[in-house]
Amino acid sequence: MIQLLKMAFRDLGRNKRRSLLSALAVSAGMSLLLLMASVVEGEMRGAMQNTIKLQSGHLQIRALTYNENKTSLKWQDLVENPQGMIEQLKSIPQIVSATPRLIASGIISLGDHSRGVQVIGIDPDSTANDPFRAGVVAGNFIQPDDREGILIGKPLAEKFNLQVGEKISLLVNKSEGNVDEQLFFVRGIFSTNTTGYDENTVFMPLAKAQNFTGAGNHATLIFIMLQNQEQAEAVSAALHSSNFQIVSWRKINELIVQTEEFANAYMVVLYLIVLGITATVVTNTLVMAVFERTREIGILAAIGMKGRRIMAQFLVEGGLLATGGVIGGLIFGGLMTAYFARYGFYIGDMGLTGFLLEDNIYAHLTLDDTISLTITTYVITLVAALYPALLAARMEPVEALHGK
Amino acid sequence: MEVAKLTNITRVFKIGQVETRALRGVNLSIQSGEFTALVGPSGSGKTTLLQLIGCLDQPTSGTVIINGQDATKLNRNQRADLRKGSLGFIFQFFALIPTLTARENIEMPLLLLRQKDSERKARVAELLQAVSLQDRAHHRPDQLSGGQQQRVAIARALATHPLIILADEPTANLDTENGKQVMEIMQRLNKETGVTFVFATHDPRVIEYASRVVTLQDGLIENDTK
């Protein structure tokens, strides 16, 4: 084996530029795939974490008749006395925070401009609302006893050219099926860096929202954050009740889960296409090497080297090119991924329904992706070396000696 | 002892629709220790005959017996094994592996035989001394003269103690002095080790060294003199 490696290394060194370019092609392919895999992973992970943090939580408790496709405020579709239920939830150690949310659809209007929004009544003191509190970019966060104040997203404020302290009209659907309209002061402007969410959401204190919509002592759901997302199924099972729906983040965000699965399958196809292209470079390099060294192959065969050993010689050369390519790919790909993991890149509002993508995507490279890409690159490069290796192994000694 | 026996050998090459009969029924027996020259004009079949004795090619008809084994009945791998253990080759174009040093080139057949490291080193040192190239052991072929390269090729051919060494025009690419040196080394090794040499040539100065001269003409043995 050492002899094989030594010969392979020296053979590749005969045409350093060609060998280097081949290894670079493998490196470039692998770097590109590492970056793509890390961006897709970062995008999916970011979308999921963002959606959990802002919208779904790890668990939600809802009324049995709750329909997520309708924003119903009928009392039978809501959770009664959510505060009482939250008191009971405090005994479960995995639950970090639980807070009621009342969700209503509304229309915000100023002058000739109006826009449909989602009005969410929240408990401003709950730590589950920290992302909004931390995201206040102007004014203040709303207070529980505020009867006239709302918090609006930065893109919404920009669309209406609204400043903190200004008044705006908000119309909402009520439990009884009718509508009501009131003027509110903008107490604060927030940004979660998720344009799709921020431009469609208005917060107000839960008590005011209940009063405004006629929901009484009800909430649309109880939003629960756990110590970690993997506890969701166990806690959900522990909370099981015939009176409520208890739904985990995985179920609520099924679209993201499915999209991630689709993206992973798509990435495999992409792996094969990109590595297939780089493999042709390796095949081409080694086929050229076989033709250049035809006479040497004949000499080796003449002194008794069998076809499988000649084949191994070229496979080892392919393996060395793969090793160089993989090392280069890990370095270049790793550097690019590290850069985009730190600084991300701006995508703005993708406008995807069901996805709460932040304005920036941050690459996230997993060990699984790194290992699977390394192995795939090795295997495909070796497969690429198989044809030239077979070509060399099948040469008739007498013809090879004459360079044919 | 008979080390090679060729019976009724024909070899027909077909290129497109054209058939070329390189050998037309050759019978030849080579005895151990012979120093045989195959002579004849270009196209007479010398190289083809040498390739058949060397199991590098298969005859169209007839049998090739090497050390009692019918090479025409062996498969590709078995013929490779036969070449590895019993045959050595010296080619007109020196035929060294350019990425290997002189020492490594000589060592290659021993590696294929999976000899122990210590045995290989001892054998290579012995052969380098036999061809007077101890001081060139670590030089690659492009750092050696034509004569030195051919001496490395002789050492490599001898490495595995083969029964027969086949040399195709071994001096064709050498000047007179180097050609003479190569032939003297081959003759000396033939006498000292008893290894059988069969070489193809049309150089009259080389033929003088032979103990037996087989003359080919149009694919047939025209004359065989000892």
What is the topological layout?
The complex is a heterodimer of chains A (404) and B (226).
Chain A (H helix, E strand, L loop, with lengths): L1 H13 L1 H41 L2 E5 L15 E2 L1 H8 L5 E16 L2 E10 L7 H5 L1 E4 L9 E5 H7 L6 E7 L5 E12 L4 H4 L2 E5 H8 L4 E2 L1 E6 L5 H7 L5 E5 H4 L1 H39 L1 H9 L4 H37 L1 E2 L13 E2 L5 H27 L3 H5 L3
Parallel strand pairs in A: 4-9, 6-8
Antiparallel strand pairs in A: 1-11, 1-12, 2-10, 3-4, 3-7, 3-11, 5-8, 6-9, 7-8, 13-14
Chain B lengths: L1 E14 L2 E14 L3 E5 L6 H8 L7 E6 L2 E2 L5 H11 E4 L11 H11 L4 H14 L15 H13 L5 E5 L7 H18 L2 E6 L2 H4 L4 E6 L2 E6 L1
Parallel strand pairs in B: 3-8, 3-9, 6-7, 7-8
Antiparallel strand pairs in B: 1-2, 1-4, 4-5, 9-10
Helix pairs in contact in B: 3-4, 3-5, 4-5, 5-6
Describe the fold and architecture:
The complex is a heterodimer of chains A (404) and B (226). Chain A has 404 residues and is of the alpha+beta class. Chain A contains 14 helices and 14 strands. In chain A, the strands form three sheets. A six-stranded mixed barrel of chain A has the order 3-4-9-6-8-7. In chain A, strands 2-10 form a two-stranded antiparallel sheet. In chain A, helix 1 crosses helix 12 (307-343) and helix 12 (307-343) packs antiparallel against helix 13 (367-393). The two termini of chain A are 28 Å apart. The model of chain A has no long low-confidence stretch (mean pLDDT 89). In chain B, helix 6 (176-193) links the parallel strand 7 (164-168) and strand 8. The longest helix of chain B has 18 residues, at 176-193. Chain B is globular, with a radius of gyration of 17 Å. The model of chain B has no long low-confidence stretch (mean pLDDT 89). Chain A binds chain B through residues 3, 7, 10-11, 13-14, 295-296, 299-307, 309, 396-398, 401, and chain B through 51, 54, 56-57, 76-77, 80-81, 83-85, 88-89, 91, 93, 95-100, 108-109, 111-113, 156.
